[in-house]
Specification:
One of its GO terms (molecular function) is DNA binding. With 158 residues, the protein is α/β, with parallel strands linked by helices. The chain contains 3 helices and 7 strands, in the order βααββββαββ.
């Protein structure tokens, strides 16, 4: 079975969501189903059907999270010695060579990626171009609008 990289923070977020689903939402749904059953005829009971549908979605999400955590290779970037190269989990400042615009990204697993929070998927074109490069090097990224060059300004293990 293939293991997928995940940061410590990403694993913690999934574990917190799993705990919430199991300890808060699941009991609420069970209670809602019990209350809806008391209303009588289940064939025409909208509350019952809605609660059962929500239960199915929550149980599917629980299985999904458990599967992701089981197949995760959790990487703690803070414990990895700095080599000066871009690797999974690092936070990297890059500057567009043409516009001099600087952005900061943390390279994370596919499940954790959120560009608005500066979390870039390791399988994205930018991350693939950056991995293995060192500070001062230029990474060439092929985008739909053409080739973009980024200079690696700083690499941090945080």
């Amino acid at each position: 079975m293939t293991k997928f990289p995940m940061t410590v923070q990403g694993a913690q977020a999934l574990e917190e969501e799993l705990k919430h689903l199991k300890s808060v939402l699941r009991p609420q749904i069970i209670q809602a189903i019990a209350e809806a059953r008391e209303l009588g005829d289940l064939k025409e009971n909208a509350e019952y059907h809605a609660a059962r549908e929500q239960q199915g979605m929550v149980e599917a999400r629980i299985r999904d999270i458990e599967g992701r955590l089981q197949n995760a290779q959790i990487i703690d970037i803070a414990s990895i010695p700095q080599t000066g190269k871009v690797i999974f989990g690092v936070t990297v400042d890059i500057a567009n060579v043409e516009t001099d615009e600087t952005v900061t990204y943390q390279i994370v697993g596919d499940d954790e990626a959120d560009i608005k929070q500066g979390k870039l998927s390791v399988s994205s074109p930018i991350a693939r171009a950056l991995v293995g490069k060192e500070e001062g090097e230029v990474a060439v990224v092929k985008t739909p609008s053409g080739i973009v060059e980024y200079e690696i300004v700083e690499i941090r293990h945080i």
